Amino acid sequence: MSKRPEVCVVGVGALGSHLVQFIRNEAVDVKVIDMDRVEQKNVASQFHGKPGVGKSKVAALQQTMDFLFKRPIATISNKLVAANIDVILKGASLVVDCLDNGTSRKLVQDHARARGLPCLHGALAPGGAFGRSIWDEHFVVDSEVGGGRGDVRGRGVPALHRAHSGVHGALGAAVPEGRDARRLLDLSCRSRRRLKTA
Predict the structure, then answer these.
(1) What pLDDT shows up at residue 104?
(2) In whole angstroms, what separates CA 157 from the centre of its chain?
(3) CA separation for the pair 139, 124 (Å, rounded)
(4) CB 110: neighbour CB atoms within 10 A?
(5) Which of these, 10, 152, 188, 192, lies nearest to 94 by C-alpha position?
(6) Which of the four, 115, 127, 166, 192, has the lowest number of CB atoms within 10 Å?
(7) In sequence order, what are the beta bridge partners of 33?
(8) Domain 6-197 class?
(9) Interior CA angle at 32 toward 96 and 145, to 5°?
(10) E-assigned strand segments in 72-153
(11) Beta bridge partners of 37
(12) 74-76 and 94-97 as β-strands: parallel, antiparallel, unpaired?
């Protein structure tokens, strides 16, 4: 029996938590890594609900994914540092960096490059108005002076779609293009607006 590929999502805030929801039906094992806790302010922009407030983000996301979709995910709530990155990312087939600080991004990038591991970097601007996802070979880690969130261009929802498309592409799956992709994004935007007004 062959082992399924493992996608490691590092950082499960606004971009990472939604990405995990989007890839839930992929034939992969999913591991999420984040040391933060869900705060009340996260409920509006992240795939974390009110019952998760106060819990670790990975535990709250694991509980939500199991409750809504019966989808198991592996979790690690430790801070990613040079001393533990080999153990935490062991077995990864693809790393998706959804971190919000340059130091940790650089650590993930160096690890992935040293091992020839595919790595997709994603970032959202504060407030989620702009976003970007880019493969490692084209990514330059920004400095902490500029806010530490990556060089972000484009709209937030398309950035999430591009990150989702990147995961699909890395796994060899078909990704909706053209009109179908725009419909997906339009539906996503409308659903998001309805949730905010409800």
Answers:
(1) 93
(2) 13
(3) 14
(4) 13
(5) 10
(6) 127
(7) 10, 76
(8) alpha beta
(9) 55
(10) 74-76, 94-97, 119-124, 131-135
(11) 56
(12) unpaired
| Spatial separation of the C-alpha atoms in residues 98 and 81, rounded to whole Å | 15
- So what's the pLDDT on residue 71? 96
Closest CA to 152 of 133, 168, 136, 166: 133
The Cα 151–Cα 133 span in angstroms is: 10
Whole-angstrom Cα distance, residue 21 to residue 11? 14
User: What is the distance between the alpha carbons of residues 30 and 175, in angstroms, rounded to a whole number?
Assistant: 19
Q: What does pTM read for this prediction?
A: 0.75
pLDDT lower than 70: segments of the chain: 1-2, 127-128, 143-198
CA 172: distance to chain centroid?
A: 19
- pLDDT digits 0-9 by tens, 51-97: 999 999 999 999 999 999 999 999 999 999 999 999 999 999 999 99
Name the token pair of 155: 């709209």
Give the residue from 35, 37, 40, 7 showing the smallest Cα distance to 22. 7
Strands (DSSP E) contained in the chain are 6-10, 29-33, 74-76, 94-97, 119-124, 131-135
Q: In the prediction, which pLDDT does 196 show?
A: 42
Two tokens, residue 141: 């880690």
Per-residue b/e over 54-72, b at no fewer than 16 CB within 10 Å?
A: ebbbbbbbbbbbeeeeebe
Please, are residues 14 and 128 in contact by the beta-carbon 8 Å criterion? yes
- The amino acid that residue 36 corresponds to is D
The domain locations on the chain are: 6-197
